[in-house]
Specification:
The protein is an alpha/beta fold and 716 residues long. Helices cover 28% and strands 16% of the residues. The structure holds flavin-adenine dinucleotide.
């Protein structure tokens, strides 16, 4: 059944609901702007849109109308009466018999109407981007066109065509894995780079505002993992729940060639010297595993420099009180500052805060054969349609493939690291589906690099039991999977009387690092910056969630029209205090579509993180008030449901250290007891800094893969 199958009377009522939720004013009504086409598409394709509710819900709504005026349907009521009925239902007052809670039905419609009206026209609604004109959002500046689209960095080999053996197998073609593959292949090694996701071109990753890695709809994304075949288990108190993508508790990053870097926001911060010495500076808070890194900032600095220059970072030194010494400045100047950032920078000056630009893995000028950023308004969560964002898929992986020594295998999952009796890894067991058949294969290699992201890398080792380590490779001391951490995000949203921003992307262009450390009574802290240009749909979700605007009706539309351009968001990642109970295990029962035991996530953030989040939110609030905001909403971790921190900044599950009793890998990221197994992703972070993690993941991958290549060259 679709909309076309509704009776004419029910379709009239449907139109009535849509047009009261989005009434015509200076801009068209919901129906006039294409909501019929949108609903037809979304109800067919997305189970979460609840096609099964539509006909019975409309019938119940018509029954409500009949109770108000005998013989009438919803469509027959006057507009004021329709508004009154919807408001009553939304507040929980209903009289007719409903097959679902009436409130939920109205809420579903409010969400569907917002998705159709504020989402991208490619989803059928928002004809001629009419709502974007209304709020002042645009994807591209007038006169700017997208450059030619970027093809996928696709597979070069199939599971049936692998070499008999490789010098190294790299598991995961994300941030760290792409770099490791490049370093090893350029050093002369034969490398198999195996990625469970598929290779996706920019065309396949079009700017879909309903299905990006930052969209709020809960609809599956192309990079988010299988919504049926990839469960995880969440231990919530004493209850275990099985969850699937895109449930946020599943804790996704992106799964495709490029991993998170295919769709990330590309903020490219270095950790500062203090971040490597957290326990020395702050002690070890009770209930935490806060620790120093086995290396310091100076040891990593040359590798930060290499990452910035080889991948391509735009930025400017200075403007950061805690920044460590640098070999040289960034390879590209900062991306142009957007108009809204200037008033924030001025206010920060008045508060005595030091600010600077946000470093980005985005071309601010043409570089490496790819164009400069076109400053579009659709950056974070989307693949860059201008190919100006630098991810592993368009930098290091093509370089690795160009050597002719690296094979890229996509859509294939590493199941287990294989090891012999004395603990030396000998290869990787991989699995995939070909023409509906499950195909398994053991691939032989001298060295293994695990870079599957902090949750999947831990899962992989735990699933790689040996005779001497029956609970998982490198897990004799029960360290694998512990210390799962990411970033609690904290900050504030300010509403202004004046227009304070436009759609000039990417968005983050003014930051203060003053609160990364040195905050009285606090362990660490975090960076604060203005946020990415938000999509209108995400703004609707945020403002309605805060109660700043109504969820539907004339006032809601006016609120969006007024506030999209009159709000500023200042947020930052708080450095979390890790704890050993926040962890990845493998579940004894639940298996994925290949029959492999899945990750079980348990634990919670440390209480210190909730305090830290309040502190950062306070600082963001002060900044916004000084900028002229009349209303500020703070975002802290106080209402955060219990559960470990994971998701896009996941890290820490195979932390480096000097002592195998308290770490899973040595100071070179090698699994204790298995010198030929290197971890090259966020798992090795001891702590995760008060800034976004990817540049540190990259620097460590360069350093540690370089060491592996040296060992190989030296025959060690
Ligand atoms: C929307 C979004 C915005 C972000 N913005 C920023 C930002 O602005 N700045 C920043 O620093 N970070 C950002 N991040 C986070 C950043 O992308 C990650 O920190 C980074 O990509 C992690 O690198 P990694 O090497 O640990 O893992 P990933 O990049 O996640 O790569 C792991 C890869 O391994 C693959 N894989 C997993 N299991 C297997 C298996 N068993 N076999 C084969 N392959 C497997 C996955 O599919 C994936 O491709 C963002 C992420 C997202 C999604």
């Amino acid at each position: 059944m679709t909309i076309g199958d509704l009776s004419p009377a029910a379709e009239r009522s449907l139109r009535g609901i849509v047009d009261r939720m989005l009434p015509a004013d200076d801009f068209p009504s919901g129906w006039e702007s294409g909501l019929d086409r949108f609903l037809d598409g979304i109800l067919r394709t997305e189970p979460a849109a609840r096609l099964d509710w539509i006909a019975p819900g409309i019938a119940a709504l018509d029954a409500e109308a009949g109770l108000r005026a005998e013989g009438m349907t919803f469509a027959d009521l006057g507009e004021a009466e329709q508004d009154d009925l919807l408001a009553a239902l939304a507040s929980g007052t209903s009289r007719a018999a409903w097959p679902m809670p009436a409130q939920d039905f109205v809420d579903l419609f409010a969400r569907l109407c917002a998705q159709g009206f504020y989402g991208d026209p490619g989803n059928g609604g928002n004809r001629d981007a009419v709502s974007w004109d209304m709020v002042g959002y645009r994807q591209l500046a007038p006169g700017v066109a997208w450059p030619a689209t970027e093809p996928a960095t696709g597979p070069t080999v199939t599971i049936g065509g692998l070499r008999p053996r490789y010098d190294a197998i790299v598991i995961g073609a994300g941030a760290g894995g792409g770099i490791a593959a490049c370093v090893l292949a350029e050093a002369g090694m034969t490398v198999l780079l195996v990625e469970r996701g598929s290779a996706l071109s920019s065309d396949e990753l079009r700017l879909d505002h309903l299905r990006s890695e930052r969209s709020v709809t809960g609809y599956p994304t192309k990079t988010g993992g299988s919504a049926t075949g990839d469960p995880r288990v969440i231990l919530d108190g004493s209850n275990e729940k099985t969850v699937y993508p895109p449930d946020s508790r599943w804790s996704a990053n992106a799964m495709t060639v490029g991993g998170g870097t295919r769709v990330y926001g590309a903020q490219a911060w270095r950790f500062c010297p203090e971040d490597f010495r957290m326990a020395s500076i702050y002690g070890v808070p009770e209930g935490s595993t806060l620790a120093d890194w086995p290396i310091d900032y100076d040891e990593l600095e040359p590798w930060y420099d290499r990452a910035e220059w080889e991948l391509g970072v735009s930025g400017a030194a200075g403007g950061d009180r805690y920044a460590g010494a640098r070999t040289r400045d960034y390879p590209m100047p900062p991306v142009e500052r957007n108009p809204g950032a200037q008033i924030l920078a001025d206010a920060a000056d008045r508060l005595g805060l030091l600010t600077g630009p946000v470093p980005l893995l985005i071309n601010s000028v043409q570089r490496d054969g790819r164009p400069a950023c076109v400053l579009c308004g659709a950056c974070v969560g989307f693949a860059c349609q201008a190919a100006a964002k630098n991810g592993s898929q368009n930098t290091v992986i093509p370089r690795a493939l160009a050597t002719g020594r690296c094979d890229l295998l996509t859509g294939v999952q590493a199941e287990r690291v294989l090891a012999n009796g004395d603990g030396r890894a000998t290869g990787v067991a991989v699995v995939t589906e070909v023409d509906g058949e499950i195909v398994r294969r053991d691939v032989t290699a001298d060295r293994i690099v695990v870079a599957a992201g902090a949750i999947e890398s831990a899962r992989l080792l735990l699933n790689s039991a040996t005779l001497t380590e029956p609970t998982g490779l490198g897990n004799a001391r029960d360290q694998v999977g512990r210390n799962l951490q990411a970033h609690v995000y904290a900050g504030a949203i300010g509403l202004f009387d004046e227009v304070v921003r436009d759609s000039t992307g990417p968005g983050p262009s003014v930051a203060t690092n003053d609160f990364r450390h040195g905050n009285p009574g606090l362990v660490g802290g975090g960076m604060l910056a203005n946020d990415f240009v938000p999509t209108p749909l995400n703004v609707w979700d945020t403002l309605t969630g805060l109660g700043a605007i109504e969820r539907f009706g004339a006032a809601s539309k006016l609120g969006m029209r007024r506030l999209w351009s009159r709000m500023q968001m200042i947020f930052g990642p708080l450095q979390e205090v890790p704890n050993a109970d926040s962890r990845v295990q493998v579940d004894a029962e639940v298996r994925d579509r290949f029959g492999i035991r899945v990750a079980k996530l348990s634990g919670d953030i440390h209480p210190e993180d909730r305090r830290g989040a309040r502190f950062l939110a306070d600082r963001a609030e002060e900044w916004l008030l000084e900028t002229g905001a009349h209303t500020v909403f703070r975002t802290t971790a106080d209402d955060r449901p219990a559960g470990p921190s994971g998701g896009q900044h996941q890290a820490g599950t195979l932390r480096m250290g000097e002592d195998p009793e308290t770490s899973a890998t040595d100071r070179w990221g090698r699994v204790w007891g298995h010198d030929n197994v290197l971890i090259a992703d966020g798992s090795v972070h001891v702590t995760n800094g008060g800034v976004n993690p990817v540049l540190t993941i990259a620097a460590l991958a360069y350093r540690n893969a370089d060491r592996m290549a040296e060992d190989w060259l030296a025959g060690r």
